Amino acid sequence: MRFLFSLKWRLLLSFLGIFLLTGMVNFLPDENVILKVAVIVGLLVAYFILGNFLINRLVLGQIKPFILISKRIAQNDLSNLPAVNVNNEFQILGESVDQMLSNLRGILRENLDASEQLALAANEMSGMVQEVSVATEQITNTMDQMSKATQEQFESTHLSVLATQQMAETAQGIASEAQKASTYSSQAAERAQKGEESIGQIHAMILQLQETVDNSAEVVRRLGMRSVEIGKIVDVMRGISRQTNLLALNAAIEAARAGEHGRGFSVVADEVRALAEQSTNSAIQIVALINEIQTETKAAVEAMEIGTRMVDDVTTLAISAKDAFSDITQSVNQTVGTIHEIAAASEEQAASSEEMTTSMQTVASIAKQNVNGAKQVAAATEEQKSNMSKLAESSTNLVDMAERLTALVGRFKVKSDFQRCWRVLDCNYINCPAYQSREEKCWLIPDTICGGIPNGSVKDKRSTCHQCEVFKVNTTVKKSE
């Protein structure tokens, strides 16, 4: 059956019939020229009518579905296209067109979804790139500040290293001087100890001297007392001498009275008187000597008393000096101990200063490495900032391309039951560009008044569209399919 109704065989049979009729004209007699002409004209008319019929019926009639489909495609409408139902060679073309349209609708749906998702992703990426650019700018500024701070830290650390080295040298000098002071203090302590011992010996000698002076003073006092007693004896001797002289005078008087018999007694009396006079003179001399002795003894006693008082004062001073030397010795010992501690602490400080110097040098080296690292990071951040600027420009271009792609792909209508995202019959804005538009979505039309956002991004337009009830319905229908 398919062979009988084939367009090719129909045309062949029609032309074969025409050729047979034309051949039959040749069998007519030559006398019937008018009949031949009439038959030829009739055949030509029949051929024209039959050809027109065959072309309209068999060719143009089969092409009409393709023309209708082409017009719908030219209007960007791929929804509810009629199926191509032919039973000849055009059936293969129709099936291919149907398959092509089905594939094209699927591709456009996928491209529309992908373009919308690409637009959203590109817009989000643009926002993220802007945020990253801002963060990169902040990081760049922070790294610049860190680089400056690290440089200042390195300089401060370098100064600290120099100061620590000077402090270490000073501590070493202090330790050396403290060691010398410790030696001198030890020597001073030894000398103070010897001085204390010498003061002790002097104090002992002063005590002995005081005892000797006291004994001498006592002896002199006793000597004075004895001179007084001697004076008393001399007074007795003078009295005896006066009495003897008086007795001698009386004896001479009595001898003179006796005359010749008393001459011997007179001689004795003269001798006795002479002895009495000598005794008197001796007593006078003794008295004079005793007076001198008493005077000198008194002076000696007074001198001894003064010496005793001076010895007492010297003893007191010696005791004070001994106590002072004892205090000095104790203070010197404490000073020696303190200086020893200072020397030990100075040595520890010198060692700590050397360790600190080493640590500060290490810190300075690390700070220098940090400076170099900060400079490298700053350079890398600056390079990243430049790359982010290029990426931001690329993301902006990508957003524009995604919006253009979404707009281009969105112009194709692939579903017949989608409502338009604006209600033209209910719209009061006659001047709205969407009023006369055939677009399916408001956000695909620039400068719309109701529902669309003029010159906005796809993300902003989609956020506004999501508030539209019709858009929600379209989205729900689209997802369900």
UniProtKB/TrEMBL annotation:
Membrane-spanning intervals of the chain: 37-55
Q: Where is the Methyl-accepting transducer domain?
A: 128-364
A Gene Ontology molecular function term for this protein is: transmembrane signaling receptor activity
Origin species: Hydrogenispora ethanolica
What is this organism's lineage? Bacteria, Bacillati, Bacillota, Hydrogenispora
**Name used for this protein in its record:** Methyl-accepting chemotaxis protein
Which residues belong to any copy of the HAMP domain? 57-109
Give the UniProt family note. Answer: Belongs to the methyl-accepting chemotaxis (MCP) protein family.
What GO terms in the biological process aspect are recorded for it? Answer: chemotaxis; signal transduction
GO cellular component assignments: membrane
What stretch or stretches form a coiled coil here?
none
